[in-house]
Specification:
single chain, alpha+beta, Phosphatase 2c, domain 1, six-stranded antiparallel sheet, five-stranded antiparallel sheet, 6 helices, 11 strands
Length: 249
């Protein structure tokens, strides 16, 4: 696995947060919202709570879809409680995308809330395993907007679900059969708003077996295209062991 996060070329603060454990087969990515410091607080709290919950689950060998929902609920509670405690953080929330690849299982378990995405590269085909919880996605599904078009700028980032903004949240949870050679990508919308799926596929196809190099290249490409938002990725490859990344300044 490798993880990288960059503030981008426009923002002054990084409100994304990435965390992973190659040893436990866990990875989570969050993209905060709420203005000022709220987004950064929400993304960190959610990722840390999700990871802490899942570390216990993996250690107990009880990994299942219900436990992933429990991890998202723990993340939601952590953000919601802090927002109620501090009036300056009242409007904060975050997206969340997480995966679990336990050694004892031949399946990948995935969960997400919001518009951070999980992709799979397999046999030269890129598939998005998540559906954005956003106004833009709903309008595309309703036939109001061409799904291949970038969509109106004012609709980007308008979420229909987020972690921490209410006392509870519904996460999408699924499991997928693993195959040798699979490459999985978690990314914030700072990547997908800048790069079409075809370019993401090119990078994973060429560099996915070296997760750190692939992560660096995706972030460089997103920044070269404008970097209008924070840019974060986690890449997990079964081709060969990758080196755990660190957050960029």
């Amino acid at each position: 696995m490798a993880m990288l996060s960059h503030v981008g070329r426009v923002r002054v603060r990084n409100e994304d947060y990435v965390c992973c454990s190659e040893r436990l087969g866990l990875a989570v990515l969050t993209d905060g919202m709420g203005g000022h410091v709220g987004g950064a607080v929400a993304s960190r709290l959610a990722a840390e709570a999700w990871m802490a919950y899942m570390q216990i689950v993996v250690a107990q060998g009880a990994v299942n879809e219900g436990e992933l929902r429990g991890a998202v609920a723990a993340a939601n509670q952590s953000v919601f409680d802090e927002a109620r405690r501090d009036p300056f953080l009242r409007q904060m929330g975050t997206t969340l995308a997480g995966i679990c690849l336990p050694d004892s299982c031949d399946r990948l378990l995935a969960c997400h809330v919001g518009d951070s995405r999980i992709y799979r590269w397999r046999n030269d085909v890129l598939d998005c395993l998540t559906r954005d919880h956003s106004v833009l996605r709903e309008q595309c599904d309703a036939g109001m907007i061409d799904p291949l078009a970038p969509g109106p700028l004012e609709l980007r980032g308008l979420l229909t679900r987020a972690v921490g903004v209410a006392a509870s949240v519904e996460a999408d949870v699924a499991d997928f059969p693993l195959q040798d050679g699979d490459i999985y990508l978690l990314c914030s919308d700072g990547v997908t708003d800048m790069l079409p799926d075809s370019e993401i596929a090119d990078v994973l196809g060429a560099l996915g077996g070296a997760p750190r190099l692939a992560a660096e290249h995706l972030i460089d490409l997103a920044n070269d295209r404008g970097g209008v938002d924070n840019v974060s990725v986690v890449i997990a490859s079964s081709r060969r062991a990758g080196r755990l990344g660190t957050e960029l300044d």
